[in-house]
Amino acid sequence: MKKIIMILLSGVLGTLFVSGCGTQGGRTEFGRYASAGSDSGTSLQQVSAGAEQPKLTDASGLSDYLAYAALNNPELEAAFNRFKAALEQVPQATALPDPRFNYKYYIEEVETRVGPQRQGLSISQLFPWFGKLRLRGDVAAQAANAVGQRYEEAKLRLFFEVKDAYYEYYYLVRSIGITKENIDLVKHVESVARSRYATAAGNHSDVIRAQVEVGKLEDRYRTLLDMQQPIVARLNAALNRPVDANIPQPREIQSEQVQVVERQLLAELSEENPQLKALGFEIARSKKAIALAEKNYYPDFAFGLGFIDTGKAFAGNPSDSGKDPIIASVSINLPIWREKYDAAVRQARYKYLAAVRSRTAKTNSLQSDLKTASYHFRDAERKINLYRDTLLPKARESLKVTEENFRSAGVGFTDLIDAQRILLDFALSYERALADKAQSLARIELLVGREIPRKGN
Fold this sequence. Notes:
Elements: H1 2-33, H2 44-47, H3 62-72, H4 74-87, H5 89-94, E1 100-112, E2 115-127, H6 132-198, H7 204-239, H8 262-272, H9 274-294, E3 301-310, E4 326-332, H10 338-407, H11 413-448
Antiparallel strand pairs: 1-2, 2-3, 3-4
């Protein structure tokens, strides 16, 4: 029994030594891709445990909402954990198969010159063909890199969703405020019309039309108030808060000075967009998969060590009576079914071509989206300058002059209402342009994969 234990221990130690040598390259390869950590149980919240949870108050800005979403959004954490899970595939792919232990018991003992053979023990280890483990590790590593870029994409898309909802909420709040101001303005006009009618200087129809205008504005005001609920619910969803949780009204946003150079952004998109980078890693993975499929034409080796438990000889007294034979073995598989391996190589090549074409198609689509976003950004910027510097000042001046003329019966009530409507439309259009510019810039940043620097910052 002592001899059995020694032989088995020697076999196990030898196998583990060879296994360690065979997977050393894979472990080194894995180390290059595990910069995010190798503990698959670590969550995004645990990674960010040192970061203080921001509190959303009336003084909170957009950066507070982004930080809150990054720490609490469940979809982002899911993408992070998918990335961690993909990293753990690398050491599995580069490891050797488990050693195989075999036991044989002779129901009828085999009589030999040196004694009866009773049972046999052996241990063996399979070794794939040279380079297979390294290629498996490369395939898994490139796949993990692609999943990592999907995580980056999820993070950018989350930030875009927060920005887009935040700016839409800002526009809605401003629209409510402007509409409320116009209701007060028209009510004031109504009181003027009543005063003129009471002194027989005006018509009763002017009072009625003022009341109709107030009713229309109040209906718009109630509609805008109701629109707050879905916008707040959308923002809360990105923040992983109850949909009906209260969110403070956004502070005033400024028209930031940003230089958008379309040609430069298109070049950066091709290099930095996470979706394109993920597809680039898929292409690299597919190339490695072709090389791995070609390795199947070569055999794998299995080396083993065993012995047979032999009893004492019944007849005679040979010098080697009861000696246990030790057996070394080697075996290989015979890859003779080449049609199967040919199909695997063709399959890998088709997947490579599909990945290349997918990246080209995605590049074209994203470049088109960037062109559209750039147009909306420039258009919003032009409208901001137009309304702020020209139309709004003139509309305010026109309303003031028209109201003075109306008091002195110089113009009719229709002219006053038209002037009021124009000012309302211009004020709302200016706020819409502010929100559109910020939302377009957020979409550009989503496509390019980075924040666009603001002038002066």
